[in-house]
Fold these 2 entries.
Entry 1:
Amino acid sequence: MIRAVIFDLDGTLIDSAPDIHAAANQVLEGEGLPHISFDQARSFVGRGARVFVERMEHAVTGGNEPARTAHLHAQFLYFYERAHEHTRIYPHVPEMLAELRGNGLALGLCTNKPLRPTQAALAYLGWKDMFDVVIGGDSLDVAKPDPAPLLAVVTGLGLTLPEIIYIGDSETDAETAERAGSRFGLYTKGYRKTPAEQMFHHFRFDDYRQMAGQMFQPG
Ligand SMILES: O=C(O)COP(=O)(O)O
Ligand SMILES: [Mg+2]
């Protein structure tokens, strides 16, 4: 029996790519480096802030230099925590979350966004108490696609894998769920690069009004 739904954040519940793009370009601007495009920024999201910065640095300088990467990473975290202005909740997410809660389900969050920007975004969105357990990209020594963060949310909720469903938008989330052995629902309007049908998932949807109906289908 399903007792909780665990969500990814960026590209799944919220469209945060515009703010991530803006934060990236604030960093690059400050360093006198060229900007990245919106499509580049969106395609760099998914493996956490450190990997995002490495991809960004590689795109604008052609390589990664450890000291420069560390500096850019620190700069990026500063702006990232403050970048909310353009972040939007995807359509019908609030009703969907309220409905799950109303049905007595627990809610978890398993994101690769570092914990401080995650907490800042949740506060900005009025979701400070929305999730019973929150694990960010730097909460553990390993991040998704390692299954440990997802398993930590499950354990934190006091549940076992068959009692949860994980919902995410990216290759990273699909791999995490597959490696954990979790049931996985793919939101197809996020930041994935692979055709949805080629990705691991048990069900998929492009409208949150369809999620609950699909979630309880067997198979
Ligand atoms: O910050 C990232 O790289 C991705 O964040 P997500 O795990 O919430 O999609
Ligand atoms: Mg995501």
Entry 2:
Amino acid sequence: MLSHHPTTLHNLLPYDGTVLYYGRIMAKKIADYYFNQLLANIEWKNDEAKMFGKHYITKRKVAWYGLEPFEYTYSKITKSALPYTQELIEISELIYRLTNTTYNACLLNLYHNGSESMAWHSDAEKMLKKNGAIASISLGAERKFSFKHKETKEVKSILLEHGSLLIMQDETQSHWLHRLPPTTKIETERINLTFRTIIKEKSS
Ligand SMILES: O=C(O)CCC(=O)C(=O)O
Ligand SMILES: [Fe+2]
């Protein structure tokens, strides 16, 4: 079920990148189903980070899955991807049907409530395909999501609905930061899936 025809999608960003919000791409019942399945079946771990020689553990939980056991380094911690679960296979097929784009890995985040957030960053790690698209699926609590231009500091925000799809593509990661701001208004969980394309390192 596609709520918006692709030709009616408009770019949320005024320049230097493309962010397309597809809105809710599945019925509420289906979104509820995936939320519950992912909550139960994903190997959620507390995110760890090393900064200035200190070791931090976040309340937010994360998981890393892929079509191959890709190693992914974020917050200076390297993890090997687990094989896609049935739900990840189905959701990636749904994204393919809507956008005609494929991905080979998925980073998952579990925010227990509005106090858990993600700080300003861009997803431009070396192992990610340069200017490759990132497909973001949101399930559970509706949260605000913001973009900030690295030079002009212009901010654009959007509400990410239950069962929705957002695509970040083109130069977005080079010119814009994004974040999931904390909020005191949300007391329930949100799951986010970002499908990405990992490039294999050339063997020398
Ligand atoms: O939770 C979100 O919507 C965004 C997560 C994100 O930006 C990331 O995992 O890189
Ligand atoms: Fe991100």
